[in-house]
Amino acid sequence: MSDILVEKSDGIAIVTLNRPKQRNAVTYAMWCELAERFRAFDTDADIRAILLTGAGADFSAGADISEFDAVRGGAEESARYEVAVDAAGDAIYEVSKPTIAVLRGYCLGGAAHLAMSCDFRIAEESAVFGIPAARLSIVYGVSATKKLFSLVGVTEAKRILYSAKRFTADEALGNGFIDELADDATAAALDRANAMAANAPLTIRGAKFILNGCARGNLDQTEADRLIDEASSSHDYAEGRKAFGEKRPPRFRGR
Q1: Choosing a second label site near 241 at 20 to 30 A (CA), which of 43, 139, 170, 181?
Q2: Would the pTM of this model clear 0.85, i.e. be above it?
Q3: 29-47 burial string, b = 16+ CB within 10 Å, else e?
Q4: Residue 249 buriedness (CB in 10 A; 0-12 / 13-18 / 19+)
């Protein structure tokens, strides 16, 4: 059985970290595979939204520390490992489709990076969050720290990183780490995903690119203008106007 499962149905992809006996701890191979999977979604016209979750009771306990002696034993290996972690996070962050992290149980360390890379985070009361890097003498990566800062602000980010303490789903909602608390996070995420999947993919793609660029402070204005022009001359723009005039739901194709 694969350590990462992908199910596709009605335009929605569900990516599941699949090591429940290890609380879905992420191996080096899984970081690499996540990057490949999400890059592939970017060009998959059949996919309109993506959910990221974990099998069983947990989202993920984070990186699989049991393999660190082999894959992250010194500075050179650690640098290579961080490249793989950042590649996975950035592939999720940059994919042009909406992404939702479905969170229950543990969401710790590197798993928090995966969750923060998604556009939205929906959690159940059972979710427990934390970044224990300070207990391992690891400096949390720049990409992940930027995402934490953008969600919770500098003071709360310092508290989370300096203390290495865990925090509850209620606390995560209060500090901005998650944006919704639900009795059934999967059902809530599917509802949100289906609503977004019905909208114009070119609009979402352009909006995500611009918002991410603004958040990072590195917006490529030329590419933003290209995406705006592409949408304005698309089949979907004509379809949207026609559907509005005919008082019916539009049928968008992403082109």
Answers
A1: 43
A2: yes
A3: ebbebbbebbeebeeeeeb
A4: exposed
When pLDDT is cut at 50, 70 and 90, the band that residue 76 belongs to is confident
Query: 3-state class of 93 per DSSP?
Result: helix
Cβ within 8 Å of residue 8, ≥6 positions away: 14, 46, 47
Question: How large is the greatest C-alpha to C-alpha distance in the chain, in angstroms?
Answer: 64
Using an 8 Å Cβ cutoff, are 107 and 113 in contact? no
Q: Give the pLDDT confidence score for residue 1 in this predicted structure.
A: 66
Q: How far apart are the first and last CA of the chain?
A: 36
188, amino acid identity: A
DSSP 233: T
Phi-psi region of 105 (alpha: psi -120 to 50; beta: other; left: phi over 0): left
What is the identity of the amino acid at 186? T
- Tokens in use for 96? 């042009």
